[in-house]
């Protein structure tokens, strides 16, 4: 059975507004393609500001009743949604692989990962505590309570089309908020399928609304939410320039923002590291989803004494990776999302080679497989003058930088405006303590390449954004604190 045949029962091509599937009011549609083949999967509603406003109207009508539900009642709906996601894991994984391109095993992993956020926040819904503030004056009682912030607009990227929107919608619904959302134009089908399952789980009409739009229509559609005072929060995962735009344009109504933005993650291998563990950790961190994740290491710093041994081991492992479409069970890396992504990867590699890098493996387009494939690549002798040092490559390219001292490595790692993730490998407990404190990042992997967990706070510092997703802290971004002062008690 093909990926499309597996995914077909869950494919929806219209907007979901007020509990109904509706076409865009303009009647326009856009094509969603399979990055492995370029073939059309579906023609999807191409929404504009009128559709965004209709979604907000529905969310506003549904808000009073949803926020009034008991936390246990909201939790029960989320638990049913979680069960339906897992029951449809194979079809959802096929849909992810079909429209995003990642290998099917990674698609299944993403479904489980996204579902874990729904289960986590279902439980957290029943743990929204306030505080009784110690009395400061006689006859007065002071307390603080947490309330849902209101309507939340969720805008998500293409690289994890299920997990990213699940970890935004789940805490919003758990907190008692209603949601309007827009997935990336490259991968709207997975998000629409997820909303269908939420509807089947009993999420009431108007509580969760999703519109799709092309790249050309998205700006106007989202602008309607930015200017609407009823939308009280924006949660966005994507590039730093777009995050800055959202912050500027929503300032007129002083919305609360959660922004998980670009990264330029360093990966440091000290000479006291377990080299085999470091190689495996780097492969897990860098080549997941073909290097198309925001926490992928973009710069790999290796201490001079072990550089040659590490480079040789990494080269051999990367050269052996199998590249191909998700329809091939042996594929470990799939196509990039589109030709623009491949062009950027090729440009970074060409620039690095022109500026003195050594090609250890890869370094070419795999046109025999299709236009969106690029060979996993390792570059030696990388330097700060190369474009890939300052720009996020977002592809399967591993540049190796030499360093001599610990301080040099830390200084180089922090020499970026971004601060989402950082990694380092060392067996020295004192160094572990020093470096983990010195790295300027919201997430630090210590002898570990796989960082994400629904129980951990995910987010960055500096120009990688603010706010946290997941964990017990993740619910706070969807709540406001109200102070209550009651007098006349004596």
From TrEMBL:
Lineage: Bacteria, Pseudomonadati, Pseudomonadota, Betaproteobacteria, Burkholderiales
Organism, scientific name: Paraburkholderia rhynchosiae
Protein name: NAD-dependent succinate-semialdehyde dehydrogenase
């Amino acid at each position: 059975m093909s990926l499309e045949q597996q995914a077909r029962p869950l494919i929806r091509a219209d907007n979901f507004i007020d509990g109904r599937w509706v076409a865009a009011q303009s009647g326009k549609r856009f094509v969603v393609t399979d990055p492995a083949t370029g073939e059309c999967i579906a023609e999807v509603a191409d929404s504009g500001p009128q559709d965004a406003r209709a979604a907000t109207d529905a969310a506003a009508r549904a808000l009073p009743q949803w926020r009034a539900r008991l936390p246990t009642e909201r939790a029960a709906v989320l638990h049913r949604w979680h069960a339906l996601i897992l029951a449809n894991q194979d079809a959802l994984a096929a849909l992810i692989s079909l429209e995003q391109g990642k290998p099917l095993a990674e698609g299944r992993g993403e479904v489980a990962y996204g579902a874990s956020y729904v289960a986590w926040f279902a439980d957290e819904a029943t743990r929204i505590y306030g505080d009784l503030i110690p009395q400061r004056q006689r006859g007065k009682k002071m307390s603080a309570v947490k309330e849902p912030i209101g309507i939340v607009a969720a805008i998500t990227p293409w690289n994890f089309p299920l997990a990213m929107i699940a970890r935004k919608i789940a805490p919003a619904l758990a907190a008692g908020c209603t949601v309007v959302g827009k997935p990336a134009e490259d991968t709207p089908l997975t998000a629409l399928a997820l909303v269908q399952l939420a509807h089947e789980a009993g999420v009431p009409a108007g509580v969760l609304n999703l519109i799709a739009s092309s790249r050309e229509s998205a700006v106007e559609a989202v602008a309607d939410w930015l200017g609407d005072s009823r939308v009280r929060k924006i949660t966005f995962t994507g590039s730093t320039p777009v995050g800055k735009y959202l912050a500027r344009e929503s300032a007129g109504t002083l919305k609360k923002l959660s922004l998980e933005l670009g990264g330029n993650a360093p990966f440091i291998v000290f000479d006291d590291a377990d080299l085999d563990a470091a190689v495996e950790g780097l492969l897990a961190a860098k080549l997941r989803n073909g290097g198309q994740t925001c926490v992928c290491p973009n710069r790999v710093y290796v201490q001079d004494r072990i550089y040659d041994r590490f480079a040789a081991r990494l080269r051999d492992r990367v050269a052996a990776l199998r590249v191909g479409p998700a329809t091939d069970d042996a594929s470990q890396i799939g196509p990039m999302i589109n030709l623009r992504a491949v062009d950027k990867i090729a440009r970074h590699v060409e620039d690095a080679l022109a500026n003195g890098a050594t090609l250890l493996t890869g370094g070419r387009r795999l046109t025999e497989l299709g236009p969106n494939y690029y060979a996993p690549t390792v570059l030696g002798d990388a330097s700060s003058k190369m474009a890939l040092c300052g720009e996020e490559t977002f592809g399967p390219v591993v540049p190796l930088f030499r360093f001599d001292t610990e301080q040099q490595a830390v200084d180089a790692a922090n020499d970026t405006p971004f601060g989402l993730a950082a990694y380092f490998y060392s067996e020295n407990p004192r160094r572990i303590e020093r470096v983990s404190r010195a790295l300027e990042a919201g997430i630090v992997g210590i002898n570990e390449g796989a960082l994400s967990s629904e129980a951990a706070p995910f987010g960055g510092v500096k120009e990688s954004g603010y706010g946290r997703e997941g964990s017990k802290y993740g619910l706070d971004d969807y709540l406001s604190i109200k102070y209550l002062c009651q007098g006349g008690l004596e």
